[in-house]
């Protein structure tokens, strides 16, 4: 094999190791609630977390469109099939797709523009469990919390068993869902924003709700912080 080919293989492996291993992110998902929460994650699957338990999830560099969320009121059989009251993902313990609203979301995309991670807490799918989503390394310290009693204060039109729906889920209109890409805050979105000012309250709520850290940062997601 030629020297140039050896060098080419070496540099290719170096790139794979650099981006695939050195910059992979770890997400430590902890349940501080006084009840069991079944964490859902795409990518990652799912895990039952009793009070005080933590699930450490390693996620590849470059992952985007990813989310972690709490599921409540779940029952699964020995094969991992069942149902959750909130956040259910096709009746599976090991989620292969996103959860059904209402569910509080920790969303992220790793190593994107300028090698930055983008992360947020979103209430666009409603709310079921209070959450903290924060960096834990790389000198990045600005985290996000949504700990208000949204379930207890939820407007009656948005109430759901075990949670509080976003108005898009209930009314399915462009005013709330922003399907046309042109929409503004509403009284319902202001209900969420006033209680969790750092979280997405409606789909166009980018300016005050998206946060960044350098690529390679690790994170924690805490239910009931």
From TrEMBL:
Residues 1-24 form the signal peptide. The keyword Calcium does not apply. It holds the Pfam family Thaumatin. InterPro entries: Osmotin/thaumatin-like_sf, Thaumatin, Thaumatin_CS. It comes from the Eukaryota. The keyword Disulfide bond applies. Keywords: Disulfide bond, Signal. SMART domains: THN (SM00205). Disulfide bonds join 33-224, 74-84, 89-95, 146-196, 154-164, 168-177, 178-183. Belongs to the thaumatin family. This is Thaumatin-like protein.
């Amino acid at each position: 094999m030629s020297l140039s080919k050896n060098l080419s293989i070496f540099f290719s492996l170096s790139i794979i190791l650099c981006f695939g291993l050195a910059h992979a992110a770890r997400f430590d998902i902890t349940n501080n609630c006084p009840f069991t929460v079944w964490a859902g994650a795409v990518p990652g699957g799912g895990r039952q977390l009793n009070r005080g338990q933590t699930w450490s999830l390693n996620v590849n560099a470059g992952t985007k469109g990813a989310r972690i969320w709490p599921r409540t009121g779940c029952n699964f059989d020995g094969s991992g099939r069942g149902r959750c009251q909130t956040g259910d993902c096709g009746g599976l313990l090991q989620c292969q797709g996103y959860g059904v609203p209402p569910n509080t979301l920790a969303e992220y995309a790793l190593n994107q523009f300028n090698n930055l991670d983008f992360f947020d807490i979103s209430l666009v799918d409603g709310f079921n469990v209070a959450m903290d989503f924060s960096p834990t390394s790389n000198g990045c310290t600005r985290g996000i919390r949504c700990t208000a009693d949204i379930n207890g204060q939820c407007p009656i039109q948005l109430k759901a068993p075990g949670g509080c729906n976003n108005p898009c889920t209930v009314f399915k209109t462009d005013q709330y869902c922003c399907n046309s890409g042109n929409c503004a805050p509403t009284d319902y979105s202001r209900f969420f924003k006033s209680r969790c000012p750092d979280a997405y309250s409606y789909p166009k709520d980018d300016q005050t709700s998206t946060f960044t850290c350098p690529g390679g940062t690790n994170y924690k997601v805490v239910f009931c912080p």
